[in-house]
């Protein structure tokens, strides 16, 4: 019998007011894991009013010292570390990823709270010179009430990536996890409660996007929406928020290039390239799913990548020998499978792995690693975000040609390149229009750095000090000193 859980609004654990619920499924089996509330506009209204009150009366802003905010965020980090095993297993059950990856996610979540706990006491303004008879103070203030809407591929990481800087900046939040993966977000609410976050400051509402999410977008008391998810929903969010001129941060999709130059060290380039596409089942916004390989080493690289993909072991994420879990849902499996079918018609299928044979996993949403060889960057499998374990490999000859190919996309989230030549590496890195470029690596995103996309991959930046800007307003206070 699956658990029936409550959501967290204004310091209380509650069901939806109309009693609506939704099931969250185990993607490895298709069985119901738990039932959570399906929040509607009335629930969102309660959560937003609580966050508004906690913002306006200073519960988390002016009435709390920065040191106190910092201490509470550190306590949240400690609690995440104390619950490391439980949180990682819960994440695996809800979204399918291999357990080793989930431990990595939980560790980074704990670090994010520590990192932004440090920032809570270091946010300061400026005193620009304005002559002897006046003084100007530029002060930083919290934006206010923030709606945080996150996807299902890194559920806890995406939640913490927004929640930690927002809380450090003094904002109050309403977090809406994806309907497919609400469980670790609810645990984060419990951790905030245990750490002593006052009522109303952190609210976690579970529900579907076009009802709960939409109510958050349109609520007039919400000052800011920070969204991570698909381009289509991101466009809708920006249009909707424009009506009330809400502040908006968007972290959207990608179709990132991965370039293997002929002088690359293949002992790192092959696993790096393959993990950059197949890691997290390919459900990664920055996946380097367009692989460009220099013609002189093309056959060797294809052989080695095929061997790498053949060694990937599909299974339940809870099995420590599994290296690729199921996709998050039947909808996502069908979507990715649809792209594999398209690929068969427009490119050459070079490799397709095996689904797990364990009968206990027969209801799971598995799609095996798949590699297509193409000669054009114009194919649908080379232009559209697939968000699954599907690689498209295209040969190139010159550096100028591959830079043009890499930039021939509507997206600009990330890029990876592999070469031993520092000049070639930096020339290519500078020429690629993307928010992140990895040289001789793929996918690391330490919380101290920066994350965000060029072009249609998003607006704004997360991680590091850059995330704080998204949750702060700047105010100029001018003082006349002449009398
Ligand atoms: P999605 O856009 O379908 O959903 C994301 C979130 O938005 C969910 O919580 C959903 O409930 C909510 N939502 C849906 N419709 C809404 C509406 N009308 N109003 C308000 N909220 C609404 O995306 P997804 O399928 O969950 O995630 C996959 C996408 O996320 C991919 O495109 C991927 O590239 C992107 N992504 C980007 C990053 C990044 O950092 N750039 C990170 C992870 C995922």
Features:
globular; binds nicotinamide-adenine-dinucleotide; alpha/beta; Aldehyde Dehydrogenase, Chain A, domain 1; 7-stranded mixed sheet; 2 domains; 39% helix; single chain; 6-stranded mixed sheet; 483 residues; Aldehyde Dehydrogenase, Chain A, domain 2
* The CATH H-level homologous superfamily of the largest domain: Aldehyde Dehydrogenase, Chain A, domain 1
Helix/strand-derived class?
alpha/beta
Q: Uncertain regions: pLDDT < 50 for 5+ in a row? A: none
Largest sheet: number of strands, sense, barrel closure: 7 strands, mixed
Strand content: 15-25%
Protein model, in words:
A 7-stranded mixed sheet has the order 14-15-16-13-12-18-19, sandwiched between helices. Helix 1 runs parallel beside helix 7, helix 3 packs across helix 4 (99-120) and helix 4 (99-120) runs parallel beside helix 5 (155-168). The model has no long low-confidence stretch (mean pLDDT 97). The termini are far apart. It contains 15 helices and 22 strands. By secondary structure, the chain is α/β, with parallel strands linked by helices. It has 2 domains: 3-252 and 458-477, Aldehyde Dehydrogenase, Chain A, domain 1, CATH 3.40.605.10; 257-446, Aldehyde Dehydrogenase, Chain A, domain 2. The radius of gyration is 23 Å and the shape is globular. It has helices at 41-56, 66-82, 84-95, 99-120, 155-168, 183-195, 209-218, 231-244, 266-278, 298-310, 330-346, 380-383, 399-407, 422-431, 464-469; strands at 3-4, 7-9, 12-14, 21-25, 32-37, 134-142, 145-149, 172-176, 202-204, 224-228, 247-251, 257-260, 290-294, 348-352, 370-373, 390-396, 411-412, 414-418, 436-439, 454-455, 458-459, 472-480. Helix content is 39%, strand content 21%. The structure holds nicotinamide-adenine-dinucleotide.
